[in-house]
Each structure stands twice: as structure tokens, then as C-alpha cells.
Amino acid sequence: MHVDALERTWIWVVSILTAIMLGTIFYTAYALSVNPPSKKIQPIDSTRLHLTPEFAEDRLGVKKNPDGSLLVTVVATRYGFFPQHVQIPAGTPVTFRFATPDVLHGLHIPGTNVDTMVIPGYISEVSTVIDYDSVKKVARMEGDKAHVPLFCNEYCGLGHHFMWSRVTVLPKT
Ligand code: CUA
Fold first, then answer.
1. 52 and 59 in contact (C-beta within 8 Å)?
2. pLDDT of the residue at 154
3. What's the whole-model pTM score?
4. Run of H or E residues at 132
5. DSSP labels for 15-31?
6. C-alpha 155 to ligand 1 mean position (Å)
7. Segments of the chain assigned E as strands
8. Which of 8, 14, 90, 150 could form a disulfide with 132 if both were Cys (CB 3.0 to 4.6 A apart)?
9. 77, 159 Cβ separation under 8 angstroms
């Protein structure tokens, strides 16, 4: 089969570029542990979210585990996050668990690495330790309290732009 010299060159160029891009994906995924949003997702019945022991209205918010770490349970719904305000001390291991009763939402807290999708039918879990200095750079300060938004970053409908809650980060005690 005849392949033009110029064409052969470009076949090589494209093959090498493809190999570099795939290599980058595998390298970041395996060597640097860069993974899709929320490494841990568990199925949940979204239509009965308010009846589940974990996501019932009176169970939401910040809870302290026996080891001192925190568990924050949040419902993302059109158009808001509940509870609408959480206070978290910096420098403490914290695990967020999110679920949605309606459509796909996104979720980001500026100054932290909390950034995930909340998919209907699944619980999204993110564990982190919030760094006070990083949050301070983007926060609205009130004394030593750093207020940052927790906002939706996946288009979820007409009220998407109004979908946010407040996170107050306290200095490590
Ligand atoms: Cu929820 Cu955009």
C-alpha cells in the first residue's frame, strides 16, 4: 500500500501526540492520584432521600466523630444547599457527604480542594483538611472567621446562579 511521505509524517505526529495525551492521563491518575470527582460514590434512592436516616432534614450538618474528625452531611437541591450555613475548624480532618433529590449538581468551596459532582442516585464523598491560610486568601473575613461560599458549578436549571451556601472556616483551635 502506498502512503505518501507527508501523510506518513503526520501519522507519526498524531500517533505521538495521542500517546503523550494518554500517557499524561494514566500518569496523573496512577502516579499523582488525580481521579474523577469524588473517588467514593455509593448508590442511594434519591426519591426517598428525606426518609433516609442519613439525609433526613434533622440529620444534616456537622457531626463530630469519636476520633475528633468531622462529618458534614449536605443535601444539594434546586436551588440551594442544606444546611445553608456550616462552620468548620481549619486543620481538622473533615468528610463531606452530599446527595441530591433532583438533578445533577456540582459543588465547590473556594480555597479548598473540595470540588465534586453530586449525581442523582449516588452519595458523593470528599475528605479533606481545610487550610486556613488558603481559605483566608479568598474569604470574606469577619474577625478570625473566614466566610466562603459553597456553590454549585454544574448548570442545574434557571436558579443555578443562586445556588450557594455559606461555609465559615474557623482558625485551628
Ligand atoms: Cu445546582 Cu447548579
1. no
2. 93
3. 0.75
4. helix 132-138
5. HHHHHHHHHHHHIIIII
6. 5
7. 40-43, 61-64, 70-77, 80-82, 85-89, 93-99, 105-108, 115-118, 122-129, 140-142, 145-151, 164-170
8. 90
9. no
